[in-house]
Amino acid sequence: MNKFLPVLLLSVISLPAAAALPPTGYYRVQNQTTKRYTYVRDNKGRIDVGATTADYDAIWLIKDDERPHYDPSGIIRLIQKGGSRYDIEAQGTSVYDLIEMLPSIYVNGQHYRIGGTSNGMTKYLCDGEANLEKELSFPRDAGGTAAQNRQRWDIFPVDDMYFGIKPEVTSEGKGYATFFADFPYTTQSEGMKMYTVVKTGNGMAALREATGVIPEGTPMLMECTGATPSDNRLTIGGTASADVDGNLLTGVYFNNTHSTRHWNVVEYDAATMRVLGLDASGKPAFITAGSDLKYIPANTAYIKVSADADAELRLVSEEEFDSSSAIDGIAADDNAVSIDINGLDITVTASATSAPAAVEIISLAGNTVAKTVLQPSESATFTLPSHGLYILRTPGAARKFHL
């Protein structure tokens, strides 16, 4: 097999500030000297044992104090295989799966070094950038005392600092984001919700709430209660327990355009993909993105659709989706009245040429929530009790509409 690499991963492994090897678990990795954290940005690499050379550029070292709190590519799983040998997992891949080798971790005082020996030569991983002011760097290997101060790595258990969701869109006081990570998790912050998408059609995407621990590698839609990752915290780890069967979301781990050698993207196709955004009324939906979106962002998700699918898929409950399907036969009267929706308010306007029109708004439960008679060109505004699907009935016709 090709010797590809998240050996990058093994590059940036460090251990707790004690002379003991870490147990299997989830960690963040930081270079002790440069303070740059490790992020796995693609799954391409190479190791040439004969030439003792390696390509580590799938791992990015980034100096950013906020990023560790929300970027899932910085969460690394160490799996102890015996003694100082470890396998390393992140972003849907592992070192052993890709290069059939296990790295060794060496205690180095209060820090750690990662390396291996080939042809009688031992090399250690270091931060390849000596300039401490630079934000971005990549791992490199070094023999002997070369770059010795940048060979020291620290590793922090994932619970040492919080991890949370950074909303992609905000509507009516709530944030929403798609999320795709290679670790199990559940919500920690009160009020957060997790959803799969289980049905699409008729301009809607049906959501099913998931509870418990989400399995690793499961794309989800997250409903957030705040604007920052600190407001929307997750608990990482645990045994998967959530029901995520029938999920229509497709997750993406990588969006790496840094170099041709490490090009790793999913190209956005407006005809067959819908991504999270806001619809024409400002509500969260899976939509057709604008021309500025070329590639699906890393660690997010999208919905695959047919070429004739609606441009916008409003987010609705599974119950509302099923109820809507039951009234698909309702015909629309495009001439008698027009409607304008603003939040929970709907303004109904009779056409100038229509006769006086009795207007009735009915909930899916069959209850009349508003009723009036409009003269030609007359308008009336109603405040409806909640968001959802309603039927607007006028003489001889009716139409469905969403709030």
Summary keywords:
3 domains, 4% helix, disordered N terminus, mainly beta, Immunoglobulin-like, 10-stranded mixed beta sheet, single chain, 403 residues, 34 strands, Trefoil (Acidic Fibroblast Growth Factor, subunit A)
Polypeptide structure, described:
With 403 residues, the protein is mostly beta strands. It has 3 domains: 24-159, Trefoil (Acidic Fibroblast Growth Factor, subunit A); 162-326, no CATH class; 337-402, Immunoglobulin-like. Helix content is 4%, strand content 43%. The protein is built from 3 helices and 34 strands. It has helices at residues 7-11, 95-99, 318-325; strands at residues 25-31, 37-40, 46-48, 53-55, 59-62, 76-82, 85-90, 93-94, 104-108, 111-118, 121-127, 136-137, 139-143, 153-157, 163-164, 169-171, 174-179, 185-187, 193-201, 204-210, 220-224, 233-236, 249-252, 273-278, 284-287, 300-304, 312-317, 337-342, 345-350, 357-363, 368-374, 379-383, 389-394, 397-402. The strands form 8 sheets. The chain has a 10-stranded mixed beta sheet. It has a 5-stranded antiparallel beta sheet with strand order 8-7-6-1-14. The chain is elongated, with a radius of gyration of 27 Å. The protein starts with 6 loop residues before the first helix and ends with a strand. The model is unreliable at 1-17 (pLDDT under 50).
